[in-house]
Please model this.
Amino acid sequence: AAAVKAADDYCKAYMQFLNDAKTEREAVCAAVRLAEKNGFVPFDPSAALKAGDKVYVNNRGKSLILATIGKKPLTDGVSIAAAHIDSPRLDLKPNPLYEDSELAYLDTHYYGGIKKYQWTATPLSLHGVVVKKDGTAVNVRIGEDDKDPVFCVTDLLPHLGKEQMERKATEVVKGEDLNLLIGSRALAGEEDNAVKLNILALLNEKYGITEADFLSAELEIVPAFKARDLGLDRSMIGAYGHDDRVCAYPALTALFENPHPAYTAVTVLADKEEIGSMGVTGMQSAAFDTFMEDLCEAQGAALRVCLENSFCLSADVTAAYDPNFGDVYEKKNAAYLNYGIGLCKYTGARGKSGASDASAETVGYVRGIFDRAGVIWQ
Ligand code: MN
Model:
């Protein structure tokens, strides 16, 4: 009972993180706020590092690497936990705003793997940043405050949806149909595109932006609802973005709870996982290697020796057995709710294609640590 109470208490802060961090940019801001509260400071590669020092690198506001320097030298290796902070969503296209039949819309391009039909007829919020030509950035977050308006993608009423309902699920709502309804009131005195012009006037009044500023914006549409207890027994959490804040948040708080590690502890909160880890804030970039190289240089350690002796848990969500869809799971090897964190030796498709396939030694090492520490895992 005490353990369940502790878990419930931990999850209250996790739910706050879910609400504060619906996008990768917001996740970095929230994580930096928590890290600074726990004594982390921006990493200065020219400064000497000693055991117990706590540093972070904010990579362009979209990914974050943090480290607590250990007692052992970096040549003994570091312990790394890596998780991602981007989630599937609808992004605005560079030229998104249009009017059709006296309704104003924002045209979107979906990001990551979504079931498109799930994004209709549900309240949505708009998050992100608009960078003007002079370089000033305007932060946008509309639809999260209870007083804010929300947006939606309309669906077809059942009586007119006969043809739609006969399509296969990937085409019930097509990607190009994901247009966000954002207005219907005309700007007084205008004839053409008066609804669109009214939206532009509102955007200009509130944010000082013009239509051309959409070209240099990153605006993301996500579900507007907040994290909630799920179930009469409140045993679960219903929220947007568990994947992968459910790993990112513990990877972060684990650092806070271990201020004097033997081995240097590194947490990586990565962007762009949902679309192949590409780009300067994804794991395919040089950001992590550069950070590790800078850390090693501060101790005069060779990077390759450090990496060779390092250990990384690549964290992400796994699918737990759902009896509603039992036939897609292999019961003997599926993860189950309430049986602890899932340790996945490999993923990959068909003949393990694309899998890293952790070695028996690696899995043995991790299960040994978990069992000695009383960690519930499966
Ligand atoms: Mn994931």
Summary: The chain has nine helices and 14 strands. The mean pLDDT is 96. The radius of gyration is 23 Å. The longest helix spans residues 2-20.
